[in-house]
Specification:
single chain, 325 residues, alpha/beta, 11 helices
Length: 325
């Protein structure tokens, strides 16, 4: 079984390499694409803390997308876009979203934070769900601000869906001055509730000795510390939340808990609970007309706070930006 598991990581690396090539084919006409190698905090767990280099910062990749049409001498808003999935990666699944963001004049950085797939077993086992992965996303943001002169440090937003939504939320909770705006789509919001409605196989991803090392029952405070719904009192950043009642991954009850917590804290934010929209968990990321209409709502919200040089005002605009050569 161990050999099979190791082989799966090699397959993931192969799939990642293929998908990296596809990025150039699918968005290379509208974006300059790069893959940078940067650092975040040291790993959360080290087997031998006295070993040579044990306390070194963790190295991870991040995708960078820059619109081809912009003027390098001007300043442009930045979007930080962490991917979803317990163990997943940033793939060409996001093609149309990236094309739509390029059309508006956003620069995008998508961090492949610790625990992402496609980079080997060791990196996969560095996962720190709701923990240091938050710092990885912040490190990607800081790198862009410090190293890309065209990035406007006063116009940085963070968006994410599912696990990426959790990362987006925890970033604005912990670093309110670093982000101008946040969108969280179907965000994982309450890990304690999540452990209750998922099965043992899923729960084992968190309680594994290389990860949290304990179940929610054994350390409920740690799971609460990593849950946006239990950090709602920290919100200072303009926020939009979307969820869907037929979500088959993040049960709507999690997001409802987040919404109720924010209201209880007297926070100002915007949200919409969509009713049984086709697509379930991916309802606003797929290619249906409804998904495109919902993405327009997201872009309008982001645009109010980040003021991109161009706007998408209709589904027709989205078609021209993302679906037509």
């Amino acid at each position: 079984m161990q050999k099979i598991s190791d082989l799966e990581h090699r397959f993931d690396a192969l799939a990642k390499g293929i998908d990296d090539i596809l990025w150039y084919q699918r968005v290379g006409d509208v974006a300059y694409i790069d893959k940078i190698y940067i650092t975040g905090p040291p790993p959360a767990r080290v087997k031998n803390p006295t070993a040579m280099g044990a306390g070194n910062p963790l190295k991870f990749y991040s995708y960078v997308f820059i619109p081809r049409w912009i003027n390098p001498g001007d300043k442009y808003p930045l979007i930080v876009l962490p991917h979803g999935g317990v163990h997943a990666d940033f793939t060409t699944y996001h093609t149309h979203i990236i094309r739509e963001l390029m059309a508006q004049g956003y620069i995008v950085v998508a961090p492949e934070y610790r625990g992402s797939t496609g980079y080997g077993k060791s990196f996969w086992m560095k996962i720190d769900y709701g923990g240091l992965e938050i710092e990885d996303a912040k490190a990607a943001r800081d790198h862009m601000v410090e190293n890309y002169e065209m990035v406007d440090a006063s116009r940085v937003g963070i968006i994410g869906w599912s696990h990426g939504g959790l990362i987006a939320l925890m970033n604005v909770f912990n670093y309110p001055d670093a982000f101008k705006v946040c969108f969280a789509g179907v965000p994982v919001s309450d890990l304690i509730a999540r452990m209750g409605y998922y099965d043992d196989e899923y729960r084992a991803l968190y309680s594994a000795d290389y990860h949290l090392g304990q179940t929610a029952q054994e350390n409920v405070e740690e799971y609460r510390r990593r849950s946006p719904a239990w950090n709602a009192h920290k919100l200072k950043t303009p926020l939009l939340i979307h969820t869907n009642t037929n979500d088959d991954d993040v049960n709507v009850l999690e997001v409802e808990h987040l919404i109720k917590s924010l209201k209880a804290e007297g926070k100002k934010f915007e949200y919409e609970i969509f009713q049984d929209v086709e697509g379930g968990h991916s309802f606003d990321r797929i290619d249906t007309r409804t998904a495109k209409e919902i993405r327009l709502k997201i872009y309008r919200f982001l645009g109010k706070h980040l003021n991109p040089p161009r706007k998408l005002n209709s589904v027709s605009d989205i078609h021209k930006a993302a679906y037509r050569p």
